[in-house]
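Form 7-S
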Amino acid sequence: MRADGVELTVDQRLFDDRRRRKTPRELEAIGLASRAAEAGMAAIAVLLARSEPGEDGRVADGEPLTAERLRAIAVDAFARHGCSGDDLIAAHGPQAADGHDPGSGRLANDDHVVCDLFPRHVDSGCFSDMTRTFTIGTPDPTIVEWHALCLEALGLAREMIAPGVDGTDVHKAVCALFERHGHPTGMSVPEGTVLRDGFYHGLGHGVGLDVHEAPNLGKAGHELVEGDVITLEPGLYRHGFGGVRVEDLLVVTDDGCETVTDFPYGLDPALAVGAAAR
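Output:
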């Protein structure tokens, strides 16, 4: 078209905003994808809970317990709920310090694992997104402390979500909480600094036909509108050691928000399985 003399102006924001206010049909599909995510997380928790210490790491059903097995069992659960998913995260130990490491290899007898699941509902194309952190064996006290603080941050952020709220303000509030407890964040370091420890990523993002779409809840955020479907995913990390992240999916309502994700937060996978069953 440009070659024929037609002037084109791409208005990305126009297309982003058209997708933000989810229709009832889209909300239903996102809910179905969320049930698949929860089923996948439950399958992981069951496998973790029945695993046992072995000579060279955890064993489940007589076989080494690996990150690859955790991801595979989640994908199987997705399929039973009409969903697909391949880029899942089951990162354990030091791997969990990298938010994009999918995880690999055998879990240690005393270990922690960050499970980030984002299945896609096949019929509608809509995604969900959720994260939980589990421990096996003897929990590291630092992981326990970080997990409690991340849950506090999640609750703080959830209370702030409403139409008209700027996503940057929610992100800043969570950063301030972490900073008061001595953790560096993207708001507390000089511009351009590559932060590898503490809270180094955005607080959340929109979810719909893509697993990452508008609005953004980070250093550059958007004002929330009714009908937005967003994640809240506070996390704390230390390279060479590991990390913790918890993530829920929410829909922005006319006077606040509703949580779409329905899964326990506990570090103990056995307790998570029991609570989910109830």
